[in-house]
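W.,

You were right to be curious about this one. When I first looked at the sequence I had no strong expectations either way, so I just let the prediction run and decided to look at it fresh. Below is the sequence, 47 residues in total, followed by the output.
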Amino acid sequence: MPTSHADVVTEHASRYLQQLCKHWAHKFPVAFDSSHGTIDLSLGRTV
């Protein structure tokens, strides 16, 4: 299975992570805290 990884430096990483997870939570199972998020997409798990 192909994988991808990126590191992006920002002062607001926690806020962006939470916004992204809340956005996807409307369609997919999501678990997150202030430093880590997991989205179970229908194509596979995204961490």
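Here's what jumped out at me. The chain has a mean pLDDT of 87. And, maybe more interesting for your project: The beta strands are 30-32, 37-41, 44-46.

Coffee later to discuss?

I.
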